[in-house]
Specification:
The complex is a heterodimer. Chain A is built from 4 helices and 2 strands; from the N terminus they run ααββαα. By secondary structure, chain A is mainly α. The longest helix of chain A is centred in the N-terminal third of the chain and has 36 residues. Classes of the chains: A mainly alpha, B mainly alpha.
Chain lengths: 109, 633
C-alpha cells in the first residue's frame, strides 16, 4: 500500500472529523439562539414564556437591513461565517491528495 | 377551439422555447464526448472527469429541485420569516455534502473501478446481496421522486401557458355544510363541478357575477374581521379544457398534458442521447438560469414593495413591517399554526445537513470528480451559490406576501393557491413578459436538472447493477450501449404514463424520498469507507434498519390519518400508546412524528446504531480490510 494511499485516507478522515465538529457547533448555535430569541411561545419549555417574550408586537420589529435581528444573529451571520470557512478551508487548508487510478488505467500504464 | 393561448402568454412561451433549445443543444454536443472504449463508465459517471465548475453546479443542480422553486416559495409566502430558520441547515450543506464522504468515496471507487453506489457497497464487501438491496432502495425512492418532479414540471408549464378556458354555462351554485361553494357548469357538453372554499370560517356567501368575456365567475363573500365587515371577491375561472386519456380512463387538463409531454420528452431526449455529460453540462446551463432568474426577481421584488407611509421605510424593511401588521407570527417562531416546533427545527437541520451527503445523486457525483483540487474549489462555489439562491428566494417571497397579502393564501386566496406564487410574482414584477418567461423558466430548469440526474441513476442501477453485474457480465460495449439508451428512454416513458395520473402530496413525497435515502445510505456508506472494522452484516443491518424505520413511521402516519375520526377503531386501541399517534395531520402522506421529531431523525439514529452493533457482532474480512484500508503507520 503506497504512502499516498495512506495519506489520502488520513486526510479524508481528519476532514470528516472537522465537518462533524463544525456541523455540531452550527446546529447548537443556530437552534439555541433562534429558539430562545426568536420564538413567541415555547411549548416545550413554558417557563421561558416570560413577559419579555410576550411583549413582542407588531409595533416595533427589531430589524437589520429588513431582516428580523433574531434571524440575523441566529442564521445570517453563521451562514456567512460558514461560507468564509468554506473559502478558507477549501482553498488554503484542505489537502490535495492522490485519489489513485481505476483498475483498467493501472493495467494500461 | 381547444388551445386558446392568451396573448400575454406568447412572450413567456418564446422564452421557454429558447431555454429548451439551449438544453437540447447541450445534449447533442455532449453525445460527441462519449467514449466508445468504456461506454458504461462514460455514460454513467463521465469517465470520472468532472472539473470544479461542472461538479459544483451539478451538485447544486441536483439538490435545488422542484421543491426548492415551487414548494419552498409557497411555504415562505404562507409562513413568513420562520422559513429562514427552517432552511438554516443549508449554511453547512455544501461542506457536509462534499467533504464528509467526497474524497474517500472517490478513492474507494477507483480501487475497484466502481461507477455506481451499489457497485461501491458490493465491491467493498464482495457482497452481491448488498449491491441488490441498495439497488432496490435507490429504484424505490427514485421512481417516487421522478413522478413527483414530472408532475411539478408539468404544473409550471401549465401555469406559464395559462390557456383560456372554453366557454361554459353556469347551471347553478350550492353551499355545502363544510363551507364550500359548488359551482355547476356545462362545458363542452359535459356537466362539471368546481369546488370553491369559503375565504374564512365565518364568511357568508353573498352573490355571484358571470363575466363571459373573461370566462370567469366573480363570487362575493362577506366576513367580519375585528368588528369590521369586509366584502371579498373570488375570481373563479370556467372549467379548463380537458383531454381524455383512453387507456387510463381519465381526463387531464390540456395545459398539464402539453407541459408533461414537452418537459418529459426534452429531458428524456437529452439524458438518453448525451448520458452523464449531457446531464452535468445542462446542470451548468440550468444552474446559471436559476441563479440569474432569482437574483433578477429579488431585485424586482424589493423595488415593487409599496412604501410604508407611516414609517417611511421601503423595500425589504417595508415588507417585514407589512408582515408584522398582517400577523406577528409571520415574523417570529414557531410561525403560523405552530409551523416549526423545536423538535421539527432540529429535525430539519438534520434533514438538510445529514441526508444531503447520503443522496444517491450526490454520492454519484462524489465518485465522478477528477481530482481533489476540483472538489475543494467546487465546495467553495456551491457555498457561494447557495447563499445567492436561498437568500434571494427568501427576499422574493417575503416581498410577495407584502405585495399579495391574501391573494394566494390557501383557501382564503382570491387569485389562486400558494403554489402559484412563483409564476404570479414573475408576472407581477418582471419589467417585460419575456423576462417573466425567463424567470418562470427557472423552476422548470430546477426540475429538469433533478429529473435528468434521477433518470440516469435509475438506468445505471438497471444496466450496471442488474444487467451487467448479475445477468450478463460478458456483455459487449455495443450491447451495453443499446441497453443503456433503451432503458433510460423506457424509464422516462413509464414515468410519463404514471405522471398522467399523478399522486398528490408533492412536497411530502420529495421530503420522503430525500430523507429515505439519507436514512438508508448515509451511515452505512460512512462506516463502509472510514471504519476498517465494518462488516457486510453490519452495513446491511444499518441500511435496512434506516429504511424500515423511516418507511414504517410514514405508514403509521398514513394509517392513523385514515382512522383519525373513528375514535373506537381497533387501530387506536392497538397503537394508541405510541407517542404522537393522535396528532392531527394536515395531509394523508404526513408521517408520525415520534416525540415531535421527523422520521429522518429516528431513521438516522437507528441506521447508525445498527451498523455499529451489527459490525461489532460479526467477523471482519481481513483480506478486504487490507485491500481498502492502509495498515496503521
Amino acid at each position: 500500500m503506497s504512502d499516498s494511499f495512506y495519506r489520502t485516507y488520513q486526510n479524508s478522515l481528519r476532514e470528516a472529523r472537522f465537518v462533524m465538529l463544525l456541523w455540531f457547533i452550527t446546529m447548537t448555535w443556530t437552534i439555541c439562539y433562534c429558539y430562545f430569541q426568536g420564538y413567541l411561545t415555547h411549548s416545550e419549555f413554558p417557563f421561558l414564556d416570560s413577559k419579555e417574550n410576550l411583549k413582542k408586537s407588531s409595533d416595533s420589529i427589531p430589524m437589520l437591513w429588513g431582516f428580523p435581528t433574531w434571524l440575523v444573529y441566529g442564521v445570517m451571520i453563521p451562514w456567512f461565517l460558514c461560507v468564509g470557512i468554506s473559502v478558507v478551508y477549501g482553498l488554503y487548508i484542505m489537502k490535495d491528495d492522490d485519489l489513485g487510478k481505476d483498475p483498467e488505467e493501472e493495467i494500461s500504464t | 377551439m381547444i388551445l386558446d393561448i392568451p396573448n400575454e402568454s406568447i412572450p413567456v412561451l418564446i422564452a421557454f422555447a429558447l431555454y429548451l433549445l439551449g438544453v437540447i443543444a447541450f445534449g447533442v454536443i455532449s453525445h460527441r464526448f462519449l467514449n466508445k472504449s468504456n461506454f458504461v463508465k462514460d455514460y454513467f459517471v463521465g469517465g470520472r472527469g468532472l472539473g470544479a465548475w461542472v461538479l459544483a453546479l451539478s451538485v447544486a443542480g441536483t439538490a435545488v429541485s422542484g421543491g426548492t422553486f415551487m414548494g419552498f416559495p409557497s411555504l415562505i409566502y404562507s409562513n413568513g420569516w420562520i422559513m429562514m430558520f427552517w432552511v438554516a441547515g443549508y449554511m453547512i450543506v455544501p461542506i457536509t455534502t462534499m467533504i464528509l464522504l467526497g474524497k474517500r468515496l472517490n478513492q474507494m471507487a477507483r480501487i475497484s473501478g466502481a461507477i455506481t453506489i451499489p457497485d461501491v457497497f458490493r465491491d467493498r464487501f464482495q457482497s452481491p446481496l448488498l449491491g441488490w438491496v441498495s439497488t432496490l432502495f435507490i429504484l424505490f425512492f427514485m421512481m417516487f421522486n421522478l413522478v413527483a418532479q414530472f408532475k411539478a414540471g408539468a404544473l409550471v408549464f401549465q401555469e406559464a401557458l395559462r390557456l383560456n378556458p372554453p366557454n361554459a354555462e353556469l347551471l347553478g351554485a350550492e353551499i355545502t355544510p363544510d363551507h364550500f361553494l359548488l359551482l355547476q357548469f356545462n362545458s363542452q357538453g359535459e356537466n362539471k363541478v368546481v369546488r370553491v372554499p369559503f375565504p374564512g370560517k365565518n364568511a357568508k356567501y353573498l352573490n355571484k357575477e358571470i363575466d363571459n368575456e373573461q370566462r370567469l365567475v366573480r363570487c362575493y363573500f362577506q366576513e367580519e374581521k375585528q368588528g369590521v365587515t369586509e366584502t371579498i371577491c373570488k375570481n373563479i375561472r370556467f372549467p379548463s379544457a380537458q383531454l381524455s386519456i383512453p387507456f387510463l380512463n381519465r381526463k387531464v387538463e390540456w395545459g398539464y398534458f402539453l407541459g408533461l409531454i414537452l418537459f418529459a420528452l426534452t429531458v428524456i431526449g437529452y439524458t438518453t442521447y448525451g448520458g452523464f455529460w449531457a446531464v452535468t453540462w445542462t446542470d451548468v446551463f440550468e444552474g446559471m438560469i436559476k441563479l440569474i432568474g432569482v437574483i433578477l426577481l429579488a431585485i424586482c421584488a424589493v423595488r415593487a414593495v409599496p412604501m410604508n407611509a407611516e414609517t417611511g421605510s421601503s423595500g425589504l424593511s417595508a415588507a417585514t413591517e407589512s408582515l408584522a401588521q398582517q400577523d406577528i407570527q409571520l415574523i417570529y417562531g414557531p410561525g403560523p399554526g405552530q409551523f416549526l416546533s423545536l423538535g421539527m427545527a432540529i429535525s430539519f437541520f438534520w434533514l438538510w445537513t445529514l441526508t444531503s451527503p447520503g443522496q444517491a445523486g450526490a454520492m454519484v457525483r462524489m465518485i465522478a470528480f477528477k481530482d481533489s483540487t476540483g472538489l475543494r474549489k467546487a465546495m467553495v462555489l456551491v457555498s457561494i451559490y447557495y447563499v445567492f439562491i436561498y437568500f434571494s428566494l427568501l427576499i422574493i417571497f417575503i416581498c410577495a406576501r407584502a405585495i399579495f397579502p391574501t391573494e394566494y393564501l390557501k383557501d382564503v386566496g382570491t387569485d389562486g393557491q400558494p403554489d402559484s406564487i412563483m409564476p404570479a410574482m414573475a408576472r407581477k414584477v418582471a419589467p417585460t413578459p419575456f423576462i417573466a418567461g425567463l424567470l418562470i423558466a427557472s423552476p422548470f430548469a430546477a426540475m429538469m436538472s433533478s429529473v435528468a440526474a434521477f433518470l440516469l441513476l435509475i438506468s445505471s442501477c438497471l444496466i450496471r447493477d442488474i444487467y451487467q453485474r448479475s445477468i450478463n457480465p460478458k456483455a459487449s460495449q455495443k450491447r451495453l450501449k443499446i441497453a443503456s439508451y433503451s432503458i433510460t428512454f423506457i424509464t422516462g416513458l413509464i414515468t410519463i404514463v404514471i405522471a398522467l395520473n399523478p399522486p398528490n402530496f408533492l412536497q411530502y413525497i420529495i421530503v420522503f424520498t430525500g430523507s429515505g435515502q439519507g436514512a438508508a445510505f448515509l451511515w452505512p456508506m460512512f462506516f463502509a469507507i472510514y471504519w476498517r472494522y465494518s462488516t457486510k452484516q453490519g452495513i446491511l443491518l444499518g441500511m435496512i434498519g434506516g429504511f424500515a424505520t423511516l418507511v414504517s413511521l410514514y405508514v403509521f402516519g398514513w394509517v392513523e390519518y385514515r382512522v383519525h375520526h373513528q375514535e373506537q377503531h381497533w387501530l387506536h386501541h392497538l397503537f394508541g400508546w405510541i407517542p404522537n399517534w393522535h396528532d392531527s395531520r394536515r395531509d394523508p402522506f404526513a408521517p408520525l412524528n415520534l416525540f415531535g421529531f421527523d422520521p429522518v431523525v429516528w431513521g438516522l439514529i437507528v441506521s447508525c446504531l445498527l451498523t455499529i452493533i451489527g459490525s461489532k457482532l460479526t467477523k471482519v474480512d481481513t483480506v478486504l480490510q487490507n485491500r481498502y484500508f492502509p495498515a496503521n503507520k
